[in-house]
Amino acid sequence: MLTVHHLGISQSDRIVWLCEELGIEYDLRRYERDPVTRLAPEVYRALHPFGTAPVITDEKFVLGESAAIVEYLIATRGGEALARRAGDPDFADYLFWFNFANSSMMPALMTSMVVGLLGGGDRARPLLARGDRAYAMIEARLGSVPYLAGQSFSAADIMMHFPLTTGRVFAPRDISGYPNILAYLQRIAARPAYVRAMAKAEPDFTAPLT
Length: 210
Hints:
Blueprint: E1 2-7, H1 13-22, E2 27-31, H2 42-45, E3 55-58, E4 61-64, H3 66-76, H4 91-118, H5 125-141, H6 155-164, H7 167-170, H8 179-189, H9 192-201
Parallel strand pairs: 1-2
Antiparallel strand pairs: 1-3, 3-4
Helix pairs in contact: 1-3, 1-6, 1-9, 4-5, 4-6
């Protein structure tokens, strides 16, 4: 049995959502953050040597890192429709946005969060420029296609959705000036699998979509 160990308000939202998209059977175990530190509880950190979310267990197999888990579930649970492979015209775009989520977008978000905690100032402006460039790129991309990999929804959207929504809880950003991103987030929010996933994973939390 596949078990998704879900830490509240974290990147493990992606894994619950993917499971719902694929219609696979899974056991959801939810863990609350420490009310003071807002970090994962000790029992969650003990699941995997690195101690971060998300984590899955598949029988005796333990796997961390959301991108790795998404790739694993697509490969083992019949999720190829959500991937793009060599020969597909959207292959390069899929690879870029799937990897951009954690390789560039999340570091930009974390930089913004740290700058905010330290008070910002003029010296921080070059550090924040990466986030500005990222949003400009995403806005431009979504002005030409409905989904990041192209004309249809893919795992790249599952990966990118977190920094555009829940990630802004940790690093607030006004996105009112990005109409294509706003429209995209509404398209995602209307997906039945996304609605089911958030109801199960985050019953007391609404991801910011505006």
